[in-house]
């Protein structure tokens, strides 16, 4: 596999998996479930560039110009990074014959990023401990990252089928 085909595969899988996750959050919102506002990701990143890592409550922090666009960009960039890490961990052979196990496991394990990095930085505490319903919030994050893992697998299958490997 050439470097360019590897990069394109990772790009396709990362964007596809993130899109599957976004469709999941659209469904949750239609069911009345509160989900992450990506403007807050952009706001956090804007403040991070100014040297501020943690906030008492990111929603109360000073808004940053273009925060919604930056938040969505970072959201998809993170999906690409996770796709690249999955391929780096399981090997490029997975791209010729993807299986669900590694993708789902990787999606579930990736939940530690929001639970142990993003939520504390946003003021929600480790494992959402500073929120009114930490267990519910953790389980929601776990489900969303499980859906992301399914998206990794689904996107890899679509890629393989499109290339005629299967």
TrEMBL record:
Residue intervals passing through the bilayer: 7-27, 69-91, 103-122, 142-160
InterPro entries to which the protein is assigned, alphabetical: DUF2938 (IPR021329)
Keywords carried by this UniProt record: Membrane, Transmembrane, Transmembrane helix
Name of the molecule in the record: DUF2938 domain-containing protein
The keyword Transmembrane helix is assigned to this record: yes
Annotated organism of origin: Pseudomonas maumuensis
Pfam families assigned to the protein according to its UniProt record, in alphabetical order: DUF2938 (PF11158)
């Amino acid at each position: 596999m050439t470097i360019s085909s590897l990069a394109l595969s990772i790009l396709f899988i990362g964007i596809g998996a993130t899109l599957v996750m976004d469709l999941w959050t659209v469904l949750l919102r239609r069911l009345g479930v509160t989900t992450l506002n990506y403007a807050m990701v952009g706001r956090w990143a804007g403040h991070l560039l100014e040297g501020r890592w943690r906030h008492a409550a990111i929603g109360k922090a000073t808004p940053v110009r273009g925060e919604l666009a930056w938040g969505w960009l970072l959201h998809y960039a993170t999906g690409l990074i996770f796709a690249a890490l999955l391929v780096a961990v399981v090997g490029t052979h997975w791209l010729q014959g993807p299986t669900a196990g590694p993708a789902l496991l990787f999606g579930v394990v990736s939940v530690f990023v929001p639970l142990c990095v993003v939520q504390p930085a946003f003021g929600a505490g480790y494992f959402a401990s500073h929120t009114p319903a930490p267990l519910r919030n953790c389980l929601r994050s776990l489900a969303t990252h499980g859906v992301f893992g399914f998206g990794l697998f689904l996107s890899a299958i679509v890629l393989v089928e499109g290339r005629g490997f299967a």
